[in-house]
Amino acid sequence: TAQELLDAFDHGDLPETIRRVDQHFGEGTYTLRLLFRDEQRKLVDLLFDSLRDSVEASFRRIYESTAPILRNLAASRAPAPPALRAAAEFYLNERIRSALVRSPPDVEEVSGRLRELEQMSLSMDAASVGYEWSLAAKRLMEAFAEGGRDGRSLLLLRSLVTLAAERSIDVDFASVQNRYYEIALAAIHPPTDSVPAQPSLSPEEGEAFRALGEKLRIRVG
User: pTM score > 0.85 for this model?
Assistant: First the structure.
């Protein structure tokens, strides 16, 4: 029925959706132009999500089976075959981006994947990784600032900023720096009716906040 087709589509079940389309409409030829624009976008997103997952799975299998070879080649300073190099770089960069997009970001996986890139003499996608890194840092700073001084977000943010510095990764931290300055400036002024006192930080969190300021090169007062 039409409802079964809609249910399959809403659940993201592409094979079942196609089967229901064939049952409901027959084997005629249909195009995206027959759909409303919003439905076109939904279907295209569904198709690309399925394709992306399939591509990522393929690259993961290639990487997992060839990683030892790439490490040995890098250790002996021998060039890696271009196809294997491209597959490994795609997979590792995608894993880094995925780890940064998570909420909260997985800093340990980011660090580990960067280490793998280095061990195999592979390249990081500086533009896309730097962009996601900046967004992840901004989200953590906002979580800290707006979430009652969330200590976990602060510690993760310090780790993320520190890792970027250690790896010499070019990340735009401007929004994080501005927010840090606002928070630090408010902390050195006594609370008022319009600016209430902020939750206090534990000794570890206070040290993390100071260390973050040093990494961001922010001085207040």
Answer: no
